[in-house]
């Protein structure tokens, strides 16, 4: 959430930021309602002043044993008028606050102008595209041949957009989760947390999922509970409505969770395979830091995600999301896009974002810069470290052989119970 002072005092900045994002929010309505609010506040103050003056006159009359009934009636009428103005002010404040929740974050100065993902500049690459002596298979063909993922059974149990992993496939998912968590906790200083997979509406609002992405969320009928779209939501909200001590920052957290998304805005996209599922596994890394260090922390968070792909030997590139492709809550985002030879394209496998104080302001996460100093909002960051399903896609497509077998990367072998090669199953 933006600081409402910025909206009121720097209208040009907000309008330019929204234009950069390609947003068409009706800011004019906000400023009209805000002017109504200011006008009402002025009227209330005038009435209070008038009431105070009359009250003084009442005191004089009473001291002189004179009749003050007319003045008392006038004071009562003014009080009723003030009450009515306060009711109208309450409605206006609610409308203004609700509108502010729909305004996206202001892009950082290093975010380039652009409209779509095609405008995202590549900032770096790692590794080389693997060359094959045969035409590479796509991951869903390999998964079926290896009998490690069953899309039909997933759809039968739930609906389309769900899958079932079995045998070495299930082991591979678990191996990746454990590998990711071990690197984050043992080498990078993150504290692992095991979090609820359902959260309340306040938590969703705190990280920016509500009200913007309501249609993408799975809500529990009759309850103020939602299935999490990412563990970013519960992890960031660990310190909602708290004031942290400066000495306790930065705080680094990591968590595994299944993620649940309707993908309402992606109808018809990636209907085959693991790229876009209603349920998928992911390991998340989250940081709560002091504002002055947040962009250095973003660079290190990006490296923390990159090292996983490097250990797995997977070629990737990093792009800086342009203004039109930037997420609602983010001030700046790097996407890591892994190379998929079967699809002959790069696909996002991790997003690493700095939200500055946008989420902290919504969730009420503050810290005390120094003793006696007024609490300030922390900056929050998060990244995928990594999306498990998409990592499996990358492994299958990059480590496949001409007989459709798939070699297990060296980094995962300690987690695979001796399995070094996934072999096609004769049916």
Structure description:
There is one protein chain. The chain has 427 residues and is of the alpha+beta class. It has 2 domains: 4-100, Serine-tRNA synthetase, tRNA binding domain (Helix Hairpins, Orthogonal Bundle); 117-422, 2-Layer Sandwich (BirA Bifunctional Protein, domain 2), CATH 3.30.930. Helices cover 39% and strands 19% of the residues. The strands form 5 sheets. The chain has an 8-stranded mixed β-sheet. β11 (332-340) and β12 (345-354) form a beta hairpin. The longest helix has 37 residues, at 27-63.
- At CATH level 2, the architecture of the largest domain is 2-Layer Sandwich
By CATH, the superfamily of the largest domain comes out as: Bira Bifunctional Protein, Domain 2
Q: What is the topology, as strand order, of the major beta sheet?
A: 1-10-11-12-15-9-8-4
* CATH domain topology of the largest domain: BirA Bifunctional Protein, domain 2
Strand content: 15-25%
Average pLDDT figure: 95
Number of helices: 12
Distance between the termini: 55 Å
Fraction in helix: 25-40%
Q: What topology does this entry show?
A:
Blueprint lengths: L3 H6 L1 H11 L5 H37 L5 H32 L21 E5 L12 H8 L2 E2 H7 L6 E2 L2 H20 L3 E2 L5 E2 L1 H7 L18 E2 L4 H5 L5 E4 L5 E10 L18 E11 L4 H18 L4 E5 L11 E9 L4 E10 L3 H6 L1 E4 L7 E2 L1 E9 H11 L7 E2 L13 E2 L5
Provide tags for this entry:
427 residues, alpha+beta, Helix Hairpins, BirA Bifunctional Protein, domain 2, 3-stranded mixed sheet, 39% helix
């Amino acid at each position: 959430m933006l600081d409402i002072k910025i909206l009121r005092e720097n209208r040009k900045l907000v309008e330019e930021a929204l234009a950069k994002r390609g947003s068409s929010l009706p800011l004019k309505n906000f400023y009209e309602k805000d002017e109504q609010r200011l006008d009402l506040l002025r009227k209330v103050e005038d009435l209070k002043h008038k009431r105070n003056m009359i009250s003084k006159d009442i005191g004089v009359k009473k001291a002189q044993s004179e009749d003050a009934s007319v003045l008392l009636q006038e004071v009562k009428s003014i009080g009723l008028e003030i009450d009515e103005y306060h009711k109208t002010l309450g409605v206006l404040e609610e409308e203004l606050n609700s509108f502010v929740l729909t305004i996206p974050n202001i892009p950082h100065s290093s975010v380039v102008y652009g409209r779509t993902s095609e405008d995202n500049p590549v900032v770096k690459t790692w590794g080389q595209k693997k060359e094959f002596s045969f035409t590479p298979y796509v991951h869903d063909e390999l998964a079926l041949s290896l009998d490690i993922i069953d899309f039909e059974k997933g759809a039968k149990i739930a609906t389309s957009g769900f899958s079932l992993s079995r045998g070495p496939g299930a082991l591979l998912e678990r191996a990746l989760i454990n590998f990711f968590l071990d690197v984050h906790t043992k080498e990078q200083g993150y504290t692992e947390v095991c979090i609820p997979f359902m959260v309340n509406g306040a938590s969703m609002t705190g990280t920016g999922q509500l009200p913007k992405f309501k249609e993408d969320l799975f809500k529990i009928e009759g309850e103020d509970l939602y299935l999490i779209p990412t563990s970013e939501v519960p992890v960031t909200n660990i310190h909602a409505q708290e004031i942290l001590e400066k000495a306790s920052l930065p705080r680094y957290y990591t968590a595994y969770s299944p993620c649940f998304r309707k993908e309402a805005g992606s109808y018809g996209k990636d209907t085959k395979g693991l790229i876009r599922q209603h349920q998928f596994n992911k390991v998340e890394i989250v940081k709560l830091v002091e504002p002055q260090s947040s962009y250095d922390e973003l660079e290190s968070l990006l490296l923390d995600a990159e090292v996983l792909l490097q250990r797995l030997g997977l070629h990737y590139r990093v792009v800086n999301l342009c203004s039109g492709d930037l997420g609602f809550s983010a001030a700046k985002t790097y996407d890591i896009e892994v190379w998929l030879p079967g699809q002959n394209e790069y696909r996002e496998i991790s997003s690493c974002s700095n939200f500055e104080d946008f989420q902290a302001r919504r969730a009420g996460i503050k810290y005390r810069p120094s003793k006696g100093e007024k609490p300030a909002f922390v900056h929050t960051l998060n990244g995928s470290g990594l999306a498990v399903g998409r990592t499996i896609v990358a492994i299958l497509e990059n480590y496949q052989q001409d007989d459709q077998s798939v070699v297990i990367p060296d980094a995962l072998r300690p987690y695979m119970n001796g399995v070094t090669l996934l072999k096609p199953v004769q049916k």
